[in-house]
Amino acid sequence: MRLEGIEDRAAADALRGMALTVQELEVPALAEGEWWAHELEGCAVVDGDYRVGTVSRLVELPSCEALEVRREQGGEPLLVPMVKDAIRRVSVSEGQIEVDLGFLGEADRKEHGAKTREGDGR
């Protein structure tokens, strides 16, 4: 990577630890199936009609990136790896990400949540 006005290693070292930002109009176009982290943050996470929670941030793991989801029911956040088996569909324009809780080993939470909602009239 090269930065305009940074001509040598000493000038680059002076920037160490600083946040680099790019104006949104200047970011490169992404390919289909790619998103910027800020576009996913705040999206609703669902499995069918069951609302799992909301994306709080994107986490970089050794093998892939994952969505950290703040659960609707509370408790520990859910990590959803950004892989096809875990994520069925992403619609940034709708603010929604559809996941497969069965693949994530969370199918029992979905079933329990649906029963709870039926039982209390919601």
Structure commentary:
The chain has 122 residues and is α+β, with helices and mostly antiparallel strands. The chain contains 3 helices and 6 strands. Strand 3 and strand 4 form a beta hairpin. The termini are far apart. The C terminus is likely disordered.
SSE map:
Blueprint lengths: L8 H5 L23 H4 L3 E4 L2 E11 L4 E7 L6 E4 L5 E5 L4 E4 L7 H13 L3
Observed structural traits:
122 residues; SH3 type barrels; 18% helix; elongated; disordered C terminus
Summarize the structure.
The protein is an alpha+beta fold. It contains three helices and six strands.
Residues in helix, %: 10-25%
**Taking Cα atoms only, what radius of gyration do you get, to the nearest Å?**
19 Å
**What do the pLDDT scores average to?**
88
Q: Can you tell me the residue ranges where pLDDT is under 50 for at least 5 consecutive residues? A: 115-122
Give the end-to-end Cα distance, rounded to a whole number of Å. Answer: 53 Å
Question: Major beta sheet, specifics?
Answer: 6 strands, mixed
